[in-house]
Design a protein that fits this description.
The protein has 201 residues and is an alpha/beta fold. The protein is built from seven helices and seven strands.
């Protein structure tokens, strides 16, 4: 199970930026948001029940499953937040350096919006699911590639995404509390700050 820590909300209702800082992905996520149901009203879905206590209840959606009516019926009925399962990750959105592909991510986004859901973006900087071109990079070239990737993806979805998982699984598994050894960590201890500042800008 991953741990996601929220940055303070930005003014003017701009999207909040999130970090997934521990190992594992959540298939179902819950977080604090504004209540949309009066207190005491009976909740008929998971999303409605979460809203009663000021939370949302979300799920990861795979674009390839959007043709499955049982899948989409349950997702549409029960959840009020959607996260793309793999479609907004680095290898999906920038398979070749400088060449972005948002087809699958847009499919998840469009389904969510058409069904009245908010969307969390997942994820901008991660040691996993990097395309081959990024895996072979290091140092300042990798740092600049990360910055360019964040700018490209966040720019495409500017004003559309409720919140972003900016950095995913930056900390090692287990109880050490230390940083994970990764090609991004090898670019310098400030790589997480750089990722957040880039996403916010």
């Amino acid at each position: 199970m991953g741990i996601r820590e929220m940055l303070p909300p930005l003014p003017f209702r701009r999207p909040r930026v999130l970090i997934a800082a521990a190992a594992g992905l959540l298939g179902v996520v819950a977080a604090v948001t504004v209540p949309t149901m009066p207190a005491g009203a009976a909740a008929s879905t998971l999303g409605a029940a979460a809203a009663q206590s000021g939370r949302y209840f979300g799920t990861a959606i795979a674009s390839g499953r959007l043709g499955d009516s049982a899948y989409t019926t349950i997702a549409n009925r029960e959840f009020n937040m959607v996260t793309a399962e793999n479609e907004m990750k680095i290898d999906a959105t920038e398979p070749n350096q400088g060449q972005f592909n948002f087809t699958a991510g847009d499919r998840v986004y469009n389904w969510a919006v058409q069904n009245g859901k908010r969307v969390r973006g997942h994820t901008l900087a991660w040691h996993g699911q990097q395309p081959g071109w990024m895996q072979s990079m290091s140092g300042s070239a990798l740092r600049q590639a990360m910055i360019n990737h964040i700018n490209g993806v966040v720019g495409h979805y500017k004003g559309k995404i409720y919140a972003w998982d900016v950095v995913n699984e930056a900390y090692a598994d287990g109880n050490s509390g230390g940083r994970r050894s990764s090609n991004l960590q090898s670019t310098g201890n400030d790589w997480i700050e750089v990722a957040f500042r880039t996403a916010r800008a």
